[in-house]
């Protein structure tokens, strides 16, 4: 796949989106003196740099796993995923390779501590930017070639920098009704509010977006029409909204009409062009694309069909908004938090050069560059693995999360009577619309249930199996609770949350994920399947089943 | 030395200093649910944590220098500092010890990657906070016991967080006339301006501060009286203002009336109490206290007198503003950038608990915690060294910078005819007041110069030898330039800067360090002696001498 060679059209200038905060930020001082900075042979006594001779670290190294440590497709051996994982780590069987960063490089241009632990450009080490560029060219393939990449210290930081670059106090930011709470909380101090847009099973609804923007009444709203959108397009946090249609065999079995997510993104992008909106694509779960959930009897057959070659894998990934961004109105946020570790506190922007320049100035006077230890160790790992190795690593990673996703839903099937139904076009639970929804009923009663009326009366919870990310987003049927209507749903949700906590399991309280809290949509938990030990996942769902049945009966 | 047990008086409440930005920042959501977070035995499926089993790093380690790698007092062997340093590193003679962080700790509570590379509290790892607390209790000794420490990602980040916590748009921040430019640039986007306070040889003048605050006319100034002060009290950047009086022998030799800096700090603190000002103490150079410069003939004798025991060394350090802070109105910023390496991107706040809580909320929705690699490696190093080891390391470090400071001033003595004079109470160059000022004259003419008039005519530059930090702050006698008066001094400074750059040496242009640029004070270079190789330092000063003599003659 060759990258696009089209440059951004000169007629497109998006600098009117820059905020007063951003415009007030000076460019580097004494611009005409800068040509001397870093000129070879010059003796520089200008900077405030400590001597690398007095860094106490003489060398830093690590043992790293190999890129193919985790299988490229789910292993369905008799042993099962759990015992396989335990074998890998507790027996010390996982093969590792060594990376080492010396104080001074042995070869010119080689990575060394003298450079990477020194003050560096806020935009990141050239080798980090090289990697980010390769990721764009090989995976995201932006619709223009003169994009810029630069480092940030994690997507939350990246998002705040984007907000400060684009938004003025009193403005609004378009976001799905359910969204990542930290993103909303981060805007509030600057008097920037979320403007919720309705969702369906694919995430933000394009028709709702258009309606909102077309009919925007600034006076009535007390706010100009929003010109910035926040979106978590893959593994939508918290709902994990569907990103891809299941393959045909599966459609016949469990699902309904679903369009390609790429189409939805294109629709949304085109609306953003029409109404001059900048899209900030916060995409931490991009490499955790798990694909559709197959109930156990069909799983092995579906997995066997999978072509796990590297290029096929890359092609199977849902397109980033960058792919359709012919105007440079997308700021994409990538992070190493999920592909390597959250402790990296490192990620990068991909965006047009003019936004990038403002973002860099902002980084220079706040976070500066990501940690040199993080940059050094991650770059060194990528050099050891090669770019393809990194992609292969994410492939294995996605499969580890697929195993975990399958494992937790299998536990629901074990603990509840789990039934699948397709929710029609206009559902009261908007993000279920057009999806195969799994509804859980009490197990011990399942034989008695046949009538639709009984079923409705007995429903405990519903969910759509996520196709990416780390979370199961569960709608609780609190309307079954005896005190429903007399006690706010929010309170019922909290009561149940506390009963569960007392019984020994913690879920994410749904209400913290609402852009604007809505009683009708209330009563959710976000259940993370990404981290707990498999036994704890099993135990947690078992406790949930017992407590929930009792709670809704009392 | 036992730490103070006095708690902050309840009558003192400084929360009225919190900015609108800070007040609008919510406390953590669902406070009443938080008691369950992290409760042992609970199965948590609430967080969005990746599994540490899929971190590609199996172990991370380093070879670190020993705490006593660098001598505790300047070595004055026949070899000289240069050859000694070269020996240490190029021959690989520097002894190192090994630290290693495993994926899972072998002992309970031990440092491991599963924890340190995971999402963590924004306030930093408990072991990092333990270290910061030990530093406060053993070295800074705040005047109250219930202070809080929490991490930031470097002092620039810490400063911006403090500004956002304390200042509203349109407000002013008190700062010395010459100050760290990034601190000023960082405030500008939020429409917060520096309010310059006059300096003398000790830094900010307390009489000038009192006068400014006492006579503040909000209407005339178009700004409320400032309630926040920014200060770099040690190794004042850029001037390196004096922090300690030289010992008596030296006073007789080269210096004038100088009071203890502690007295000045106390005066300023008391004025800040009177006018309700919060002090932000940005102190990156605290452990680079080099002490007075002794001309070569006296140096060996003075160094021999030095007691280099650890406690004497700690006692010799100038007191932090924390020591006099009985009201909790100091926010102190510490960083590992100079004691370990800038690439750590890690430091900490020490301040009252109420400011700390707001700073932590801000970190949660922006930078989050410092890099886990940085935290892990630095904590592990400190565990290996012990707290005393860390202090011993800083002692060696300060001496390395002392050698460098002495080396560069010795080069001035070599390249110029360098003469010492005490500048009287009211100097036109304010930060020279009360100091021993070194003035450089052309070397080849020195024998002809005897009369005061000739001396004045021939002066090339003047400086006060810094007693801490990394910089020599040089006042250029541009008034000697033939075009002085007809061309702005700023332009002359720039012309000279360019001539020097063309000749092969770069200095920091003085004008970027001015809180408010003042033509009278114009014409400075900030010369860094911290990083360049000794040969380059020598060569750089030699080029400077040639170019400067020629420039002022033409």
UniProtKB/TrEMBL annotation, chains A, B:
Keywords, in A-Z order: Aminotransferase, Pyridoxal phosphate, Transferase
Gene Ontology biological process terms from the UniProt entry: alpha-amino acid metabolic process
GO molecular function: pyridoxal phosphate binding; transaminase activity
Signal sequence, start to end: none
Keyword field contains Transferase: yes
Highest taxon of source: Eukaryota
SUPFAM superfamilies the record matches: PLP-dependent transferases (SSF53383)
Domain Aminotransferase class I/classII large residues, every copy: 125-243, 266-533
Stored InterPro entries: Aminotransferase_I/II_large, Class-I_PLP-dep_aminotransf, PyrdxlP-dep_Trfase, PyrdxlP-dep_Trfase_major
A Pfam match: Aminotran_1_2
Co-factor requirement: pyridoxal 5'-phosphate
Similarity comment text for this entry: Belongs to the class-I pyridoxal-phosphate-dependent aminotransferase family.
PANTHER family from the UniProt entry: AMINOTRANSFERASE, AROMATIC AMINO ACID AMINOTRANSFERASE, HYPOTHETICAL (EUROFUNG)
UniProt name for this protein: PLP-dependent transferase
């Amino acid at each position: 796949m060759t990258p696009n060679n089209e440059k951004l059209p000169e007629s497109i200038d998006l600098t009117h989106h820059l905020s007063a905060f951003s415009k007030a930020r000076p460019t580097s001082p004494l611009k005409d003196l800068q040509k001397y900075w870093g000129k070879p042979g010059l003796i520089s006594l200008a900077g405030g740099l400590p001597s690398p001779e007095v860094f106490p670290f003489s060398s830093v190294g690590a043992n790293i796993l190999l890129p193919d440590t985790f299988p490229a497709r789910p292993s369905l051996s008799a042993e099962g995923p759990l015992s396989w994982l335990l074998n890998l780590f507790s027996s010390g069987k996982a093969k590792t390779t060594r990376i080492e960063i010396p104080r001074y490089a042995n070869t010119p241009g080689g990575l060394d501590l003298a450079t990477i632990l020194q003050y560096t450009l806020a935009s990141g080490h050239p080798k980090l930017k090289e990697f980010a560029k390769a990721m764009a060219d090989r995976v995201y393939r932006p619709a223009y070639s003169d994009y810029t990449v630069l480092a940030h210290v994690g997507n939350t930081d990246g998002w705040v920098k984007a907000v400060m670059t684009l938004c003025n106090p009193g403005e609004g930011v378009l976001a799905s009704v359910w969204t990542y709470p930290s993103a909303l909380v981060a805007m509030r101090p600057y008097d920037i509010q979320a403007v919720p847009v309705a969702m369906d099973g694919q995430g933000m609804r394009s028709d709702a977006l258009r309606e909102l923007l077309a009919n925007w009444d600034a006076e009535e709203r007390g706010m100009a029409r929003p010109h910035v959108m926040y979106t978590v397009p893959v593994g939508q946090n918290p709902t994990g909204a569907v990103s891809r249609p299941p393959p045909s065999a599966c459609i016949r079995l469990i699902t309904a009409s679903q369009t390609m997510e790429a189409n939805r993104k294109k629709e949304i992008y085109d609306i953003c062009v029409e109404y001059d909106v900048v899209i900030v694509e916060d995409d931490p779960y991009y490499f955790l694309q798990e694909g559709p959930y197959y109930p156990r009897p069909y799983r092995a057959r579906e997995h066997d069909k999978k072509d796990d070659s590297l290029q096929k894998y890359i092609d199977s990934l849902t397109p980033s908004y960058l792919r359709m961004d012919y105007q440079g109105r997308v700021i994409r946020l990538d992070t190493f938090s999920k592909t390597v570790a959250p402790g990296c506190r490192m990620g990068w922007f991909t965006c047009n050069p003019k936004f990038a320049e403002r973002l860099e100035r902002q980084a220079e006077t706040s976070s500066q560059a990501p940690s040199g230890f993080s940059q050094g160790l991650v770059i060194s790992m990528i050099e050891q693995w090669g770019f393809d190795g990194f992609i292969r690593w994410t492939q294995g990673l996605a499969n580890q999360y697929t195993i975990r996703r399958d494992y937790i839903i299998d536990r629901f099937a074990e603990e509840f009577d789990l039934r699948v139904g397709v929710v029609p076009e206009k559902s009261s639970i908007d993000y279920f619309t057009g999806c195969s929804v799994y509804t859980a009923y009490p197990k011990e009663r399942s034989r008695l249930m046949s009538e639709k009326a009984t079923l409705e009366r007995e429903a405990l919870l519903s969910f759509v199996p996520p196709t990416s990310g780390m979370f199961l987003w569960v709608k609780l049927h609190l309307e079954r609770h005896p005190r429903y209507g007399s006690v706010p749903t929010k309170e019922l949700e909290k009561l149940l949350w506390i009963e569960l906590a007392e019984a020994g399991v913690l879920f994410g309280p749904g209400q913290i994920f609402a852009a604007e809290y809505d009683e009708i949509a209330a009563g959710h938990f976000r259940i993370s399947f990404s981290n707990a030990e498999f036994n704890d996942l099993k135990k947690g769902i078992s406790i949930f089943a017992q407590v929930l049945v009792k709670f809704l009966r009392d």
